[in-house]
User: Which sequence fits this backbone?
């Protein structure tokens, strides 16, 4: 059973702080990792993808991947109230010929 | 126009009724998916299709069926709706390039079975 685990939260951070969201996965052959943001009642929106160990930065977002520890994280710098949402971690296997497996999501609340 | 369009956006139906949820896309993607989302349970895969002639069950396919009418169209049917199928349903698409790609989601269909 392929699993993706996330802390459900809510994670509360003050405005301007760094929010750190974590995800672990069980399938060692997983090669592609994604972070989606989902506002309440809306569809998930892809915000980051990462394929190699290390850090990948895009604006205020940084994705971090450690395949040895089977761990992927998302850092949000200078958090804004508009970042308040549920963040979904998703992974898939080496070939890409299997559907993404999603975690249940972490709810982030940024307090002004 | 949206790249991935789901209809209807909202639907209330009675127990035992047959209902179809439709999804169409203009992204030219080969792969299409149906997920349902329930509070606290995340996104769960119902069915997926990697091309017009390919249909695969996901983790929660019981009580559902699908039809891939064309590359751009993928419909989900509930043959006899029951209240625990009340959920938010999402269609998603992806292409086949690269070693792994993200999905584009439709806006969702909120289904209530009474």
Assistant:
């Amino acid at each position: 059973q392929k699993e993706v685990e996330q802390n459900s939260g809510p994670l509360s951070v003050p405005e301007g702080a760094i929010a750190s969201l974590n995800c672990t996965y069980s399938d060692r052959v997983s090669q592609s990792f994604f972070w989606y943001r989902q506002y309440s009642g809306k569809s998930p929106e892809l915000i980051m993808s990462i394929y190699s160990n290390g850090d990948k930065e895009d604006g205020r977002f940084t994705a971090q991947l450690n395949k040895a520890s089977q761990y992927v994280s998302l850092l949000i710098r200078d958090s804004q109230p508009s970042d308040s949402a549920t963040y979904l971690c998703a992974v898939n296997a080496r070939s890409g010929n299997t559907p993404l497996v999603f975690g249940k999501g972490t709810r982030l609340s940024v307090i002004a | 126009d949206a790249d991935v369009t789901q209809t209807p956006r909202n639907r209330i139906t009675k127990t035992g009724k047959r209902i179809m949820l439709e999804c169409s896309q203009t992204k030219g993607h080969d792969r299409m998916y149906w997920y349902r989302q329930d509070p606290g349970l995340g996104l769960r895969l119902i069915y997926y299709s990697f091309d017009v002639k390919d249909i695969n069950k996901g983790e929660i396919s019981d009580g559902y069926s699908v039809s891939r009418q064309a590359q751009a169209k993928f419909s989900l049917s509930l043959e006899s709706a029951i209240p625990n199928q009340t959920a938010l349903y999402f269609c998603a698409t992806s292409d086949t390039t690269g070693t792994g790609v993200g999905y584009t989601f439709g806006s969702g269909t909120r289904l209530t079975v009474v």
